[in-house]
Amino acid sequence: MSEFRIPDRHARLLAYAQSLTPPAGWKIEISGDEIIVTAGPPVIHQHNVLFVREQFDTHRPSDLMPSENTDLASPNVGKLRNPDLTYIPRSFVKTGGNQVPAEQAALAVEIASPSNPENDLVGKVRDYPLMAIPVYLLIDPREGDLTLYSEPSGSGYHRKWSGKFGDAVPIPAPFDFDLTTDGLIRYPA
After folding, report:
1. CB count, 10 Å around CB of 133?
2. Which terminus of the chain faces fewer neighbouring Cβ atoms within 10 Å, N or C?
3. What share of the chain is helix, strand, coil (3-state, %, to 5)?
4. How far is 13 from 3, CA to CA, in rounded Å?
5. Is 134 part of any domain?
6. Which of 90, 89, 70 is CA-nearest to residue 81?
7. How are strands ordered across the β-sheet holding 135-140?
8. Does residue 95 lie in a domain region?
9. Of 83, 105, 74, 81, nearest to 29 (Cα)?
10. Which among 103, 109, 107 is positioned nearest to 85, based on CA atoms?
């Protein structure tokens, strides 16, 4: 993990967010100067996470482990995000705690929330490349859309693949497989 100095404002915001106790099933994230509190997901959301996770699990490198709702922290850029699914080095289990440096995540998977889709469609598309997350898979059950972002930089992701439910998503290394999406379920209209 690289050494960096956390700006005082971000350190205070992070400390405040960590002092909050959200209701059961809710999660807290930080983006810049905002604390974002989101409600627990519906059952369709959970099904879609499981459908995707089972495929990633069969292609996961042995040094990575799946984690759902783990805080990925980038305090140097004022970000704390909690993807629906991520894969992190197994070595972080020994460190304990609830946060993983975001740059250590192999990818982030989000199922767009029916109540606050802008958080996934706009906020995380902006934040994840700043956090050095190499791959962001965004699944939007509202319209059946799929977007895969890769090659992050400070200005965003350089690569973007788009498709619809039923299309095979070309997942890059270290997983390196085509994700099938015909088992994903759309939210009711």
Report:
1. 27
2. C
3. 30, 35, 35
4. 20
5. yes
6. 70
7. 64-67, 85-89, 107-111, 135-140, 145-153, 156-164
8. yes
9. 81
10. 109
Using DSSP's 3-state secondary structure scheme, residue 10 falls into helix
Per-residue pLDDT of the chain (189 residues; tens, 9 = 90+): 444 445 676 667 777 777 777 766 666 767 667 777 765 667 899 999 999 999 999 999 999 999 987 889 887 788 888 999 999 999 887 776 678 899 999 999 999 988 888 889 999 999 999 999 999 999 999 999 999 999 998 889 999 999 999 999 999 999 999 999 999 999 998
3-state secondary structure (DSSP) of residue 132:
coil
Count how many domains the chain has: 1
- CATH number reported for the structural domain that contains residue 75 in this entry: 3.90.1570.10
* pLDDT tens by residue, 92-133: 877 766 788 999 999 999 999 888 888 899 999 999 999 999
Amino acid making up residue 95: T
Residue 87 within a domain: yes
Residue 185 lies in a domain: no
Structural domain including 37 reads 8-179
- The reported pTM is 0.80
Using the structure block, give the residue that is written with the tokens 């369709």: 44
Q: Please check whether residue 100 is in contact with residue 126, taking contact to mean a CB–CB distance below 8 angstroms.
A: no
